[in-house]
C-alpha cells in the first residue's frame, strides 16, 4: 500500500499475454463479409495481412502470448503509470477517487504504439518489406513509423489532407522516424483519383485514406497494410492497458465503479475495458463507458449494420455501429475520434448492453482538458479530453450525492501536437456541433445491402 499519487509496475510486471475477449462475449461477433456477401476467408485477408495477425483476428484462445521481441519493444515505455488525480479531486471538491492510466508516455505520445510494434513485428516475421497505412490526426501514422523503424520496415502513410496541412509537426515526426507521408486524396491510387475527380478540393477523410493504403498494399506482394484501430487484433494488442491498470489499482486496494475511455475506432476502449469484462461476467459490478464526440456519434446515434471500413468499399464489410462509410466528418479537433464506424467487438458489446456509451460536445471537452492541465499538469490530447470530461461529470455527480465512487479513465495521449486546438479554444473560436439527424437517416440508405 502506498499513499503516492503515482502507481508504478516493475518491468517484470509487464503482461506476458494479450487478453482475447471473444471467448467471453455473450454474443459472438458477426463475421466480416466479402463483396459476395459471404464470410471473408483467411486467404482473402492474406493479400494485406500476415498469417499471425489473421489468426489473431479470429482466435478463440482467451490468452495469447506476447512474443519476446514485442515485449522488449513495449518495455521502452511500459508498464505505463497510473495516477490518482488528487489535485483534480480537490479542485472539484468531490468525494470520488479519480484514477487515470497515462498512455502519453510512449515515444509517439499515445496508446497507438502498443499495437504498432506488434503489427510491425509480425509483418517482418512474414518477410514483408513495407507497410502502408492511413492517418488522420497523425497519431497512428507516427506510431507505425516508429514501429517500422524499430523492426526494419518501410512505412508509407496516407495522411488525411486537412491534417497534412494543419499538423505539419506530426508529419515531421513521421518523417523523423523514416516514414513516407502522402497527402490523401492523392493521385497515386484509383481511390484517390476518384475522390479528386468528385471534388478537386477534397480535404480527405479517414475512409478515403484507408482506401488508398489498402489499394497499394493489395497490389504488391512485399507490401502489407496496417490498421491502427477497429480490427480485433488491434484491440487485442491494446489489452496491456487494462491488465496493467487492474494490477496497479490492486496495489492500492482499489477497484473501479466506473471506467471511461475516449472512443474513435474503439482500440483504447477495448484495451482498457476488456480485461474488466471477465470480472463483470463473473458478477462484479463495474460500469464501462465509451465516450465519443456529439459531432461523430457512432455508438450513441449510428446504425448497427454491415458497412465498409473505408469510403471506396475495398475493405470487408463489418457488422458495427456506423454513420455510413461515406461519412464526411465535421472539422472537429479530436481528429482521432472522427471515424464513421467502430470496432465490431465494441459494437456487439454495446448492443448487448455490456459497454455503455455517451457523447459529449467539443467545448465541454476542452473545458475539462484545461482544468486537467491546471490541476494535474498534463496537457491531454483532445481525444483524451472526452474521457476527462466524462470523469469530471461523474465526480461532480458524486459531489451531489455524497458517494465516494472510484473512477478510472484512460488518458490516451498527450496534446503537445494539438496546441493549435487549445489555442483556438482559448481564443473562443471553437464551436459545438451536433451531427444532424437527417445525415444519419440518409446514410442508412447508402449502407451496403447484405443478404
Ligand atoms: C487515435 C486516438 C484515440 C482514438 O482511437 P481508438 O482506436 O478509439 O482508441 C484516442 N486517443 C488518442 C490520443 C488517439 O491518438
Task: Describe the protein.
The protein has 451 residues and is of the alpha/beta class. The chain has a domain at 7-13 and 68-109 and 233-445: 3-Layer(aba) Sandwich (Rossmann fold). It is 41% helix and 16% strand. The protein contains 19 helices and 15 strands. The chain has helices spanning 42-45, 51-58, 68-74, 86-92, 113-125, 139-151, 161-166, 168-176, 190-198, 206-218, 232-237, 240-251, 267-281, 298-301, 344-351, 362-375, 382-401, 419-426, 437-445, and strands at 6-7, 17-19, 63-65, 82-84, 97-102, 130-135, 154-160, 180-184, 223-225, 258-262, 287-293, 303-308, 317-322, 356-360, 406-411. It has a seven-stranded mixed β-sheet, sandwiched between helices. A four-stranded parallel β-sheet has the order 8-7-6-9, with helices on both faces. α5 crosses α6 (139-151) and α16 crosses α17. The longest helix is centred in the last third of the chain and has 20 residues, at 382-401. The mean pLDDT is 95. Residues 110, 112, 139, 229, 262-269, 336-337, 381, 383-384, 412-413 line the site of pyridoxal-5'-phosphate.
In short:
The protein has 451 residues and is α/β, with parallel strands linked by helices.
Total of DSSP H or I helical runs spanning 4+ residues: 19
Q: What's the CATH architecture of the domain at 7-13 and 68-109 and 233-445?
A: 3-Layer(aba) Sandwich
Unreliable stretches: none
CATH topology of the domain at 7-13 and 68-109 and 233-445: Rossmann fold
Cα Rg: 20 Å
Beta-strand segment tally:
15
Task: List the ligand species.
Answer: pyridoxal-5'-phosphate
Class from secondary-structure proportions: alpha/beta
Q: What is the strand content?
A: 15-25%
Text of the CATH class of the domain at 7-13 and 68-109 and 233-445: Alpha Beta
Outline type: globular
Share of helical residues: 40-55%
Largest sheet composition: 7 strands, mixed
Strand order of the largest sheet: 1-4-5-15-10-11-14
Mean pLDDT: 95
Distance between the termini: 57 Å
Q: What is the oligomer described by this structure? A: single chain
Amino acid at each position: 500500500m502506498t499513499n503516492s499519487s503515482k502507481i508504478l509496475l516493475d518491468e517484470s510486471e509487464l503482461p506476458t499475454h494479450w487478453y482475447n475477449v471473444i471467448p467471453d462475449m455473450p454474443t459472438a461477433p458477426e463475421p466480416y463479409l466479402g463483396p459476395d456477401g459471404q464470410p471473408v476467408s483467411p486467404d482473402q485477408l492474406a493479400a494485406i495481412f500476415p498469417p499471425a495477425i489473421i489468426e489473431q483476428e479470429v482466435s478463440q484462445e482467451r490468452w495469447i502470448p506476447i512474443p519476446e521481441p514485442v515485449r522488449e519493444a513495449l518495455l521502452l515505455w511500459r508498464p505505463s503509470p497510473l495516477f490518482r488525480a488528487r489535485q483534480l479531486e480537490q479542485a472539484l471538491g468531490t468525494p470520488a477517487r479519480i484514477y487515470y492510466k497515462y498512455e502519453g508516455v510512449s515515444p509517439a505520445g499515445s496508446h497507438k504504439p502498443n499495437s504498432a510494434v506488434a503489427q510491425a513485428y509480425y509483418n517482418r516475421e512474414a518477410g514483408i518489406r513495407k507497410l502502408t497505412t492511413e492517418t488522420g490526426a497523425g497519431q497512428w501514422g507516427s506510431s507505425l513509423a516508429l514501429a517500422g523503424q524499430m523492426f526494419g520496415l518501410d512505412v508509407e502513410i496516407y495522411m488525411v489532407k486537412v491534417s497534412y496541412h494543419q499538423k505539419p509537426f506530426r508529419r515531421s515526426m513521421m518523417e523523423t522516424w523514416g516514414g513516407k507521408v502522402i497527402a490523401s486524396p492523392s493521385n497515386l491510387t484509383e481511390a484517390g483519383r476518384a475522390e479528386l475527380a468528385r471534388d478537386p478540393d477534397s480535404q480527405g477523410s479517414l475512409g478515403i485514406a484507408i482506401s488508398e493504403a489498402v489499394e497499394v498494399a493489395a497490389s504488391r506482394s512485399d507490401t502489407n497494410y496496417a490498421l491502427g484501430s477497429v480490427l480485433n487484433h488491434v484491440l487485442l494488442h491494446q489489452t496491456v492497458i487494462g491488465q496493467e491498470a487492474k494490477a496497479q489499482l490492486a496495489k492500492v486496494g482499489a477497484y473501479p465503479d466506473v471506467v471511461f475511455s475516449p472512443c474513435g475506432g474503439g482500440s483504447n476502449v477495448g484495451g482498457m475495458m476488456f480485461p474488466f469484462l471477465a470480472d463483470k461476467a463473473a458478477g462484479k459490478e463495474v460500469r464501462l463507458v465509451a465516450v465519443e464526440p456529439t459531432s461523430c456519434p457512432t455508438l450513441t446515434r449510428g446504425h448497427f449494420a454491415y458497412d465498409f471500413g473505408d469510403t471506396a468499399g475495398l475493405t470487408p464489410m463489418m457488422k458495427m455501429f456506423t454513420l455510413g462509410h461515406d461519412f464526411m466528418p465535421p472539422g472537429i479537433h479530436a481528429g482521432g475520434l472522427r471515424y464513421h464506424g467502430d470496432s465490431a467487438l465494441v459494437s456487439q458489446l454495446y448492443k448487448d448492453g455490456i459497454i455503455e456509451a455517451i457523447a459529449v460536445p467539443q467545448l465541454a471537452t476542452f473545458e475539462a482538458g484545461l482544468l486537467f492541465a491546471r490541476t494535474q499538469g498534463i496537457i491531454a490530447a483532445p481525444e483524451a479530453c472526452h474521457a476527462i470530461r466524462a470523469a469530471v461529470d461523474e465526480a461532480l455527480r458524486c459531489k451531489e450525492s455524497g458517494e465516494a465512487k472510484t473512477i478510472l479513465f484512460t488518458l490516451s495521449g498527450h496534446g503537445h501536437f494539438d496546441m493549435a486546438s487549445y489555442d483556438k479554444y482559448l481564443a473562443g473560436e471553437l464551436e459545438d456541433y451536433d451531427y444532424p439527424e437527417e445525415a444519419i437517416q440518409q446514410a442508412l440508405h447508402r449502407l451496403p445491402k447484405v443478404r
